[in-house]
Amino acid sequence: MSEERADGGAPEITPATLRRLERASGGLAAASIAAMEQRLPWFQRLPADERASVQLVTQTGVANFVAWLQDPTEAIRLTTEAFRSTPRELSRWVSLRQTLELVRVAIDVFEQRLPEVADDEAQQGLLRESILRFTREIAFAAATSYAAAAESRGAWDARLEALVVDGIVRGDAEESLLSRAAALGWDPGSEATVLVGNAPSEDPPTIVYKVRARAARVGCAVLLGVQGSRLVVVFGTAGSREQEAAAGLAEAFGEGPVVAGPTVSSLAEAHRSAGDAMSALRAVVAWPGAPRPVPSADLLPERALAGDPESERQLVENIVLPLVDSGGALLETVDTYLEVGGVLENCARQLFVHPNTVRYRLRRVAELTGRVPSNARDAHVLRVALGVGRLAKARGLW
């Protein structure tokens, strides 16, 4: 018969029932594992060592249940121990949903075996209520364990991501960098573009949330790193959506200019995009009206004035040499056009040619260099490029 509590409260489980439950605990654990193998197909496919880990959790849980019945104040400590005793990798191959399925099977087995351990129906009811309360604690302990594992993996992924971005900025092209990026889910064949600018806040989680929210909105993969007050974002796109993606991601940056490096074919080449973007970010202050984001290629004049040799090389190779290779007429025409302040008729008189000839030559200049001499910004780029070209020629560089 059920015993009354000393304080006159609800009846409690008898010592005889507790003894029978303790003796039956091994059989309960074995029966639970057998039921899991029979009812859960995914459990059958687990390797032997992983099934052994689940069995360890089950056996510990049954033993803890008996101890908890003797002292319910120990519930949280005892149930948590069931998960602390398992390998850390358990949460990687058994999901939280699957863990709850295991708990449900164990409850069913226990309820089927109640008549073997309980004195009467009252004791069975008490045990049934107790197992439900205890498995609730088990469920909370499991959720806590999985949440801690997720936070640990998230922190590790954040550190790994920061290492990848730092390696890109420093110019590392090692295989280790690519393998780390692949571990973070980066597609090795994806194109890569680097964005740099000011971080939107001093709180890293806030920064990560803003960048990833924008990345999800524009549909691109990102790697990000915060270096002091500077935010570096590497993003990959499919097709020709770089400008759209860059514009969307720029909204996640703080106040001030945002610079986009050139798009490269893979992450292994991303250090070139990062180098151009960093150089442009240092020089963008010389162009107050720069758009946001501004491509690093649009800041070649400012970068050259700041002493960046890479920008000088690009100005010579992309603007000066194509004009030189086309013959002296185009170079002379654009030089004269800029000297006379962009007045076509004055340029034609200086060169002793018809204005239509000047128009034709200027169109050829635009085709070869991508810069329209009649546009104020492009005229500035052309003027600086011609000056850099003369200096490079004087030094015998071409």
UniProtKB/TrEMBL annotation:
All residue ranges annotated as the PucR C-terminal helix-turn-helix domain in the record: 330-386
Pfam families: GGDEF_2, HTH_30
Protein known as: PucR family transcriptional regulator
Residue ranges of every copy of the CdaR GGDEF-like domain listed in the record: 171-283
Signal sequence annotation: none
InterPro entries: CdaR-like_regulators (IPR051448), CdaR_GGDEF (IPR041522), PucR_C-HTH_dom (IPR025736), PucR_C-HTH_sf (IPR042070)
Family of the protein in this entry: Belongs to the CdaR family.
